[in-house]
Write a structure and sequence with these properties.
The protein is an alpha/beta fold and 226 residues long. The protein folds into 2 domains: 167 residues, Leucine-rich repeat, LRR (right-handed beta-alpha superhelix); 35 residues, no CATH class. It has a 7-stranded parallel sheet. α1 links the parallel β1 and β2. α5 packs antiparallel against α6. The longest helix is centred in the last third of the chain and has 14 residues.
């Protein structure tokens, strides 16, 4: 369905909304002023084209009843006053990139979910400190995360970080110039050989275990740390 005009502006029964950006359209431009009184689940995928996406307007207008908020792609926000905009939120899902939208505290969130490409961890695209800073905020303000029960990192599948660059180079060396270009991309995106292959802080994991908070990877696998 293509909506060319921002009407109707009130959808009383809409509970789920998924917005996806493109090179031509900020996904929030049309919907941010709509009246969505029953909205409980919102997914915004800004991609890499809409770095000026401001979530404030749509969350102030339609965030009061939200239970789930999923943010994918890149946003021009460092901190999000989520407890103020979405006081009833129970699940916060976000992409772990250099523009990760961090949250200082939220007393109702039960599930905190991070997504990323594990082969990019430690690169400028997915710097480790962005995740570490968010986790440190939770530890520092633990009392303000009263309902937190699970932290999920979907990049962790129980195996250590692969160093794919040289392997891909060998596989594509016979594919000519195009293959070499692909190989170069993987080499530069792959983690360096001397990098730790576990990206979670063991002290953080032990702290959450003592607090009764599960730290899980893909398919419920226990997170491991260094």
């Amino acid at each position: 369905m293509v909506i060319r005009e921002p009407y109707p502006k009130r959808l009383e029964r809409l509970t789920w909304l998924s917005l996806t950006g493109s090179i031509h359209q900020n996904p929030l431009t049309i919907f941010q002023d709509w009246d969505l009184p029953s909205l409980t689940h919102l997914c915004v995928d800004a991609g890499s084209y809409c770095r000026d996406c401001d979530l404030s307007t749509i969350l102030q207008c339609s965030g009061k009843k939200l239970k789930t908020l999923s943010l994918r792609g890149e946003f021009a926000m460092d901190d999000l006053p989520l407890a103020e905009y979405c006081p009833n939120l129970t699940c916060y899902e976000v992409d772990w990139t250099f523009s990760l939208v961090s949250v200082l505290w939220h007393p109702m969130v039960e599930d905190l979910i991070f997504h990323c490409d594990e082969t990019l961890i430690g690169t400028p695209r997915t710097p480790r400190h962005r995740l570490t800073d968010q986790i440190a905020m939770i530890v520092t303000h633990r009392g303000a995360w009263e309902q937190l029960r699970r932290i999920v990192d979907t990049a962790w599948d129980g195996t250590e970080i692969p160093t794919r660059g040289l392997q891909v180079l060998r596989q594509s060396i016979n594919n000519g110039v195009q293959g070499m270009m692909i190989s170069r991309r993987y080499i530069f995106d792959s983690p360096p050989p001397n990098r730790p292959r576990r990206w979670w802080n063991m002290a953080h994991l032990e702290y959450f275990h003592e607090e009764g908070i599960e730290c899980l990877g893909k398919n419920g696998i226990q997170l491991l740390g260094d």
